[in-house]
Task: structure prediction
Amino acid sequence: MNYKDTLQAVDTEKALTIINLEYQTMGQYVKFKCLKCGENALIKAYGEKKNLHYCPKCKASGHIIFLVMAVKGIDWDAAKELLTKIQLPSSKKITEEINLQYDLTYHKFLEDKGITEDMRKALEIGIPKGKTMLAQCVAFAVRDETGIKIAYYGIKMKDGKPVFHKSFNPEMYLYNFCNVNPYRNLGAGRV
Result:
């Protein structure tokens, strides 16, 4: 496994646990004490640039492999092997439907992307009305594999950046998976 694949494969919280660094989850980031200055540093737990850390106080930065090397006093290969083999319980999935309901509306932005009003309704996407954390976003309801609505996810229309509540980890869910029919392509009379 190469460097980039290793960074994407490693569960940030599992890695910090295995090297005994105390941390606090903050949305897509995890806060921990900087090894250099002892102040709060942040490491990205998922998404683009996953497992890269930065300390705003002393400007120390790096990635999870270097953290493991520093804390454990081991070389690159040993740190990489440790990270790719850890098997601790993963983040908990959301189990209760959220009681939040956005009024998602059709918008010229969606039309320009080739999304019709019927598609918008079927996919539960749109532009939220009113003042919300997803204002100026294309938002959509996220449902787990059983169809329970667990979150709303937004993508800013201006710059394409994601917006979501800090308790939601988008990497744990496959959008619209609950609507997949596993028997659709089997043909008539097959089970």
